[in-house]
Amino acid sequence: MLHITLNRPEARNAMSLAMVEELMATFEAVERDESVRALVLRGGGGHFCAGGDIKDMAGARQKAADGDPEAFFRLNRRFGEMITRANRLPAVLITVLEGAVMGGGFGLACVSDVALAAGDARFALPETGLGVIPAQIAPFVVRRVGLTQARRLALTGARFDGHRALSLGVVHEVADSAEEVDKKLAELLTQVRRCAPGANRATKALVLDVDSVPMEALLDRAAREFADAVNGDEGQEGTLAFVQKRAPSWADDKEHR
């Protein structure tokens, strides 16, 4: 399990271009390393991420004033490339959402496989109130909560807490104390450890392709991957462990099925 902390507490972990590049490098490494079964993304200093970095915006504005018409496009699109990569990450992506979860932080929450929020976390898409748009975030918000709610959230800039985020489908778990957050995170990681790493990666790829691959082709692929899994090392070990009433070799705990 890999734990990554967004660590700009003085800026409520606002997403700078440097942070985007560091996350991209991390995701690339995780894609190559099949031993990483889950990546836990959390913010330092009591906040997850308050959105984009104003300093980067100012820098892009200066570049545009100096004659670079693509400065804002490149800055915004690079974040989109990062969040797309996060969405397709083979490992299980878990976000721990505390304090400010806004703009880009909201987007990262919407591409996580499991989102755990503090009850008093503060969620919002504030972009339109600043005269800009949630350009790279909005498509993932639509996928997460549906078109009707995404329209309302984006067009009003509504702010809400972790409990409301749960009811909207932005997050999957809510905890009302720091101790409960840590307890629920430990439980989630235990659940991930009970799942076969290869099966998890194949399953994630399968569900992510539902909207982009024709159904019959997807089901054909799924059947082939199922056959390969049954005959593979994980399938054989999982079946044997079930028959023998023991935990499979990939599970770190000693709890029996």
Automatic annotation (TrEMBL):
InterPro entries according to UniProt:
ClpP/crotonase-like_dom_sf, Enoyl-CoA_hydra/iso, Enoyl-CoA_hydra_C, Enoyl-CoA_Hydratase/Isomerase
- Spell out the Pfam families in the cross-references: ECH_1
What family is this protein classified in? Belongs to the enoyl-CoA hydratase/isomerase family.
Query: Do you know which PANTHER family this protein is assigned to?
Result: ENOYL-COA HYDRATASE (PTHR42964), POLYKETIDE BIOSYNTHESIS ENOYL-COA HYDRATASE PKSH-RELATED (PTHR42964:SF1)
Protein name per the record? Enoyl-CoA hydratase
In which organism is this protein found?
Alloalcanivorax profundimaris
Cite the source lineage: Bacteria, Pseudomonadati, Pseudomonadota, Gammaproteobacteria, Oceanospirillales
